[in-house]
Write a structure and sequence with these properties.
single chain; about 425 residues; alpha/beta; three-stranded parallel β-sheet; about 35% helix
Length: about 425
């Protein structure tokens, strides 16, 4: 069954199947008694609990996710709310700490009595958060846990709100390289990845494909998330003179690595870094030497999906800049949860309502700003990422060919 959710899944009529409970849930195995609360809370706001890395290693993308969530909530409230009720976000700072994120979701569900939860940023934080949500029987839609380990934990409540998992992010680039004439194809590759499941997943998904086609791995470095000095890793890459460099990165680590490579005058034919190039501050951070740098992305403001342009216009007006991928995936998370709420007609913490929301998403397609989404039994989205590249100073879609805004540049100009 497919469902197109009109106007961002904002309700135009009230369909309330279950009432909202006004207290926390004491028994994780039960998830609450589902008996409802007093009538005066039935028309109160829908409380949504979220923990995000607003400080620590993942604070830059974490703040982007926060902006996306807050813009989505403001838009929904301006357009009638969900089930004719306003939505309210409670956002806690998990400080990029896995133990903290678990305790945050415990608090949000068990003490604050939220009706729904949205996921955090980063696979490292998604896994412990999803476990808490599962313990309490909560639907768990998340914007940034794309590594394979997210989908092998037995989370029957989890849905990733993006087009593709980490290992598949560079599939279009791998296809492009494989189709190149053998004499032009890169022969050697250097990899540097943060010790993070998502970052490594994006890099090593491409690594596996390149090695299958005979590209030799000459550098393979993994670094801790708090690494700031990349001089030794950059020296190994520069010494290898690898044809292609791939960074399994978040934001600041990619910036620091690229600056270190620039200082050594290493000039690869291809350079690909996950996440960072889509950040609006990226170009200034590396000295505007962006030409030819690539990155996978699940979102572009130029997409023609049903709701994308309205999202871009609203977000830009609210924030003064176009949304990036983190902000779009956060908005998508809101769209996915809203679609389930609309489809089922409930938004409360009872196990009956939460299971209905989960079941609804298993059986339906949701139209979002990153395209139509469906999921397998483990919560993997069944789509693919685009590949972007800086061309003439602007980051543009270059792969696949049918979605391209510009031709892929190869070899990459010197930085």
């Amino acid at each position: 069954m497919t469902t197109s959710i009109r106007r961002w899944a904002v309700a135009t009529t009230a369909v309330v199947g279950l009432t909202v409970t006004g207290c926390g849930i004491d028994d994780p195995s039960a998830g609450g008694d589902g008996s409802g609360a007093s009538g005066e809370e039935e028309d109160g706001p829908i409380q949504i609990g979220i923990s995000l890395p607003l400080t620590g290693d993942f604070s830059e993308p974490g703040k982007g996710v926060q902006r996306g969530y807050e813009a989505w909530a403001a838009y929904v409230n301006e357009n009638g709310g969900l089930l004719d009720r306003q939505v309210e976000l409670t956002i806690l700072d998990d400080q990029s700490n896995a133990d903290r994120v678990a305790s945050d979701y415990e608090k949000l569900i068990n003490q604050d009595g939220v009706d729904l939860v949205f996921g955090p940023f980063s696979t490292r934080l998604v896994v412990p958060a999803a476990q808490v949500a599962l313990d309490y029987g909560f639907l768990f839609v998340e914007p940034a846990g794309a590594a394979e380990e997210v989908f092998t934990q037995g989370f029957t409540n989890l849905f990733y709100a993006a087009p593709a998992v980490a290992e598949d992010h560079y599939n279009y680039l791998a296809d492009y390289i494989e189709a190149m004439p053998e004499g032009e194809r890169p022969e050697t590759a250097a990899f540097a990845a943060m010790d993070d499941p998502f970052a490594q997943g994006t890099a090593y998904g491409l690594k596996a494909r390149l090695e299958e086609m005979g590209v030799e791995t000459v550098v393979d470095e993994v670094y801790p998330p708090n690494t700031t000095d990349f001089s030794s890793i950059a020296a190994k890459i520069a010494s290898s003179d690898a044809d292609i460099v791939v960074g399994g990165s978040q934001y600041q680590d990619a910036v620091n690595l690229i600056i270190s490579l620039q200082q050594l005058d290493y000039q690869p034919d291809m350079a690909a870094f996950s996440t960072a190039p889509t950040n609006p501050e990226f170009a200034a951070a590396i000295g505007d030497q962006t030409e030819g740098i690539m990155a996978p992305t699940g979102f572009t403001p130029e997409a023609t999906y049903e709701t994308t342009q309205e999202f871009v216009e609203y977000f830009t007006e609210e924030n003064g800049s176009e949304p990036n991928e983190d902000e779009a995936n956060a908005w998508t998370t809101g769209q996915v949860v809203a679609a389930a709420v609309e489809g089922v007609g409930c938004a409360d913490p009872s196990p009956e309502c939460q299971q209905q929301l989960i079941d609804w998403l298993r059986d339906n397609e949701v139209q979002t700003v990153v395209g139509p989404l469906t999921w397998d039994a483990e919560g993997r989205p069944q789509g693919a990422h685009l590949v972007q590249q800086y061309v003439d100073g602007e980051i543009q879609i270059v792969l696949p060919e049918e979605a391209a805004e510009a031709d892929l540049i190869f070899p990459k100009p010197e930085w």
